[in-house]
Design a protein that fits this description.
The chain is an alpha/beta fold. The protein contains 13 helices and 21 strands. It has an 8-stranded mixed sheet with strand order 7-6-15-16-17-14-18-21. A 6-stranded mixed sheet has the order 9-3-2-13-20-19, with helices on one face. Helix 1 runs parallel beside helix 9, helix 9 runs antiparallel to helix 11 and helix 12 crosses helix 13. The longest helix is centred in the C-terminal third of the chain and has 23 residues. It is globular, with a radius of gyration of 22 Å. The mean pLDDT is 96. The chain binds flavin-adenine dinucleotide and 3,4-dihydroxybenzoic acid. Flavin-adenine dinucleotide binds next to helix 1 and helix 9.
Length: 402
C-alpha cells in the first residue's frame, strides 16, 4: 500500500525519550534535520516518573547546548551520598575525592526542556504514532512506516536512530544472528514512591538492611523520592501507605534515632531490574541508542546518563558523515559506546550486589557484603572508585578516542 503522506529528513528518530530528543537537539545544533516519532502523547512523556540523577558530564552537556537554564535554577547539586548499614551512616564525599558532584533533576523535567527547545526551533515531533516499522536500513535509503492521525505515513531518511527503549521495535527488526545480547535478570525489583514530605537528609541515602535495600532521594526541598527492594512482580495493592512508611522507617533506622519525614504519597510504582547489552549497537544505517541498546539496574543511577553519552557520540559521528561523506566515525560508534556501557554495567551490578538482599544469601554472604561496605567507607582508594564511577566517566568523542 502506498503511504498517504511521505516525509523526507536526514535522520529519522524512533522514540521521544531522553535519547531521541537529545539526539534531535544535538543534530539541530550541527545543522542536521531530523524527525522524531513517538507512540505516546506529549503529556505522557512529560509526566512519566523515572530517573533523577544527572552525572556531571550530562550536566555539562545540557549546559553547553542551551538546555541548562531551568536545571541550574531548580536542580539540586550534591557533593556526596551516604551509605547506611549496621544502623550507621557513612558519607562518601564525591567533591573531596574527585572534585565533582551530581545534580538531582527529574528525567521528566529534562524531557520537558527538550520538547520545549525542539518545538521552539521548529523541530518535528510526531506524537501518538502507531504500527511503527523500519525498513531498508541495510541500504542507503532507509525508511520508517507508521500511522499518524489516521494516515499511513513514511519517512525517507539517510539514517535511522533507534531510541525506542528496551521494548521498542528497532532492535527486534535487525536480522536474527546479527546482534549478540547479554542479559542478567535480578530476583528483585524496586517499589518507588513520591511523597509530599521534605527529604530527611540533604543527600541521597543508600541503605543495606537485613530486610532489604532502601534508597532515599528527592525531587525538591518539599518532595521525597523513596525506593525499597521488593519482589519483581510485587502486588502494589498489598502496600497501603502505612505499610510502605513502616517498612521504609525500619530499613533507614539508625542507632541515633533517624526518622524519615512522612507525608501524602502521590505516586507508586514497581520496577523490575535487569542488566542487558546488545553488541554491536548498529546494523547497516540503523544506530541503537539508550535503553534500546542496553539496560542497567537503577542502583548506580546510570540509565539516563548512558543514553546521553550514546547520542553525544552518535550526533558527532553523524555530523562528521554529513560534512565529509566519510562513515569512519560511525563505524566506531558501537566500540566507543560499549566501552562506557560495560563500565557502567559493572558499576551498576556491583552497587546492586553490594546493597541488596539476595534470597538465597547465607550468613557468610551477608558478612562479606558488610566487609565490603566497611572497606568502601574507610579506604580512600575504594571510596574514590565509587565516587569516580557515580559522578561519571568523561564523555568521549570518536575523534578523541584511541
Ligand atoms: P526511554 O526513556 O524508554 O524512551 C523510549 C521512548 O520510545 C519512549 O518514550 C517510548 O514511548 C518510545 N517508543 C517505544 N516504542 C516505540 C515505537 N515503536 N515507536 C515510537 N516510539 C516508541 N537512569 C539514570 O540515569 N538515573 C536514575 O536515577 C535512574 N533511575 C531510574 C528509576 C526508575 C524507576 C526507572 C524505571 C528508570 C531509571 N533510570 C535511571 C533509567 C532511565 O530512566 C532510562 O535509562 C532512560 O529513560 C533511557 O532513555 P531512552 O531515551 O533510551 O529510553
Ligand atoms: C534516583 C534513582 C536511582 O536509580 C538512583 O540510583 C538514585 C536516585 C531517583 O529517582 O532520584
Amino acid at each position: 500500500m502506498p503511504p498517504s503522506r511521505t516525509l523526507r529528513t536526514q535522520v529519522g528518530i524512533v522514540g521521544a525519550g531522553p535519547a531521541g530528543l537529545l539526539l534531535s537537539h544535538l543534530l539541530h545544533l550541527e545543522g542536521i534535520e531530523s524527525i522524531v516519532i513517538e507512540t505516546q502523547t506529549r503529556a505522557h512523556i512529560e509526566e512519566r516518573v523515572r530517573a533523577g540523577v544527572l552525572e556531571h558530564g550530562t550536566v555539562d552537556l545540557l549546559n553547553a547546548t542551551g538546555l541548562g537554564d531551568r536545571m541550574r535554577r531548580e536542580g539540586l547539586v550534591h557533593h556526596g551520598i551516604e551509605l547506611r548499614f549496621n544502623g550507621r551512616g557513612h558519607r562518601i564525599d564525591f567533591h573531596a575525592l574527585t572534585g565533582r558532584g551530581i545534580t538531582v533533576y527529574a528525567q521528566h523535567e529534562v524531557i520537558k526542556d527538550l520538547v520545549a527547545v525542539r518545538t521552539s526551533a521548529g523541530g518535528q515531533i510526531l506524537f501518538e504514532v502507531a504500527e511503527v516499522r523500519i525498513e531498508d536500513f541495510d541500504t542507503t535509503a532507509p525508511r520508517i512506516r507508521f500511522q499518524h492521525d489516521g494516515e499511513d505515513c513514511l519517512i525517507a531518511c539517510d539514517y535511522i536512530a533507534g531510541c525506542d527503549g528496551f521494548r521498542g521495535v528497532c532492535r527486534p527488526a535487525v536480522p536474527a544472528g546479527a546482534l549478540r545480547c547479554y542479559e542478567k535478570v535480578y530476583p528483585f525489583g524496586w517499589l518507588g514512591i513520591l511523597a509530599e514530605a521534605p527529604p530527611a537528609s540533604d543527600e541521597l541515602i543508600y541503605a543495606n538492611h537485613e530486610r532489604g535495600f532502601a534508597l532515599m532521594s528527592m525531587r525538591t526541598p518539599q518532595i521525597t523520592r523513596l525506593y525499597l527492594q521488593c519482589h519483581p512482580d510485587e502486588d502494589l495493592s498489598l502496600w497501603p501507605d502505612d505499610r510502605i512508611w513502616d517498612e521504609l522507617q525500619r530499613r533507614f533506622a539508625t542507632t541515633d534515632g533517624f526518622r524519615l519525614n512522612e507525608g501524602p504519597i502521590f505516586q507508586k510504582g514497581v520496577t523490575a531490574m535487569r542488566s542487558f547489552v546488545t553488541e554491536p549497537m548498529q546494523y547497516g544505517r540503523l544506530y541503537l541508542a539508550g535503553d534500546a541498546a542496553h539496560i542497567v539496574p537503577p542502583t548506580g543511577a546510570k540509565g539516563l546518563n548512558l543514553a546521553a553519552a550514546d547520542v553525544f557520540v552518535l550526533s558527532n559521528a553523524l555530523a562528521h558523515a554529513f560534512r565529509t561523506g566519510s562513515e569512519a566515525r560511525l563505524a566506531r560508534y558501537s566500540e566507543i559506546c560499549l566501552r562506557r556501557v560495560w563500565r557502567a554495567q559493572h558499576f551498576s551490578w556491583w552497587m546492586t550486589s553490594l546493597l541488596h538482599r539476595f534470597e538465597d544469601a547465607s550468613g557468610f554472604d551477608h558478612r562479606r557484603q558488610l566487609a565490603e561496605l566497611d572497606q568502601v567507607t574507610s579506604s580512600c582508594a575504594a571510596a574514590t572508585t565509587l565516587a569516580e564511577n557515580y559522578t561519571g566517566l568523561p564523555f568521549t568523542l570518536p575523534g578523541e578516542y584511541s
